[in-house]
Amino acid sequence: RKSKIPVPSSPYTSERQESPGSSSSAYISDQNTPNETRVGGRGLYPVWKYFQRQKTKSNGYYSAKCDYCSTKWSRGEPVKLEAHLALECSYVEEHVRQFYLLCVACRNNLEEQSEHSKRQKLNNQHGLTKFFPQKTGGGLSEGRSNTINVALLKAFVVCGISFSVIENLFFINLLQTLCPEYQPPSREVLARRLLDQEYSKVVIKREAIFRESNNLTI
């Protein structure tokens, strides 16, 4: 039976289920947290509660250090920090890991893929449509694009194909020939965000199977 993955609450409104007096070193109370904002004027993502941060030379960006395992990033990105808590950190509290496991599993990578395209335009980089003609129809639906992205990811992983191939013009030509309206994800989206998302789904399903099983033998 195929079960649905529960959708977590919005990361902008979620709060950690601990009191300011908690002994956990990862907790940062709102009173002790500076009222800082990121690029665009929005407040920092709640995932930053679990990381120490320092401003970088780029306005609105921070370096990050995990409060649980001390892993460091010269530039902390919320999507990477969430994936770290969900899939990589060995010392994270279980309720925190479970929450971000769901966050990563339920991401909308098409929006992130769109943001990547916007950055390309801002940097005067040519999009794929400059090199390969597109159909003038309404384009692929979100569901269809997601299905192709997942199938593409599985092929890369199972066949041991380097993720850099996704940006090879000959490979792009192949994809565009098969489906002219399909826009392949960038290497960053494929190798990190889509991979993290699918891995999170596997972990959630695996843990659900273990919870419902009895008399397991190792």
TrEMBL record:
Record lineage: Eukaryota, Fungi, Fungi incertae sedis, Mucoromycota, Glomeromycotina
Q: Where is this region: Disordered?
A: 1-40
**The protein's name in its UniProt record:** 17177_t:CDS:1
Bias (Polar residues) occurs at 26-36
Q: Which UniProt keywords apply?
A: Metal-binding, Nucleus, Zinc, Zinc-finger
List localization entries.
Nucleus
Among its keywords, does the record have Amino-acid biosynthesis?
Answer: no
Q: Please provide, alphabetically and separated by semicolons, the GO molecular function terms listed in this UniProt record.
A: zinc ion binding
| GO CC terms in record | nucleus
In terms of domain of life, where is this protein from? Eukaryota
Q: Which InterPro entries match?
A: ZnF_BED_domain_contain (IPR052035)
Key word Zinc-finger present = yes
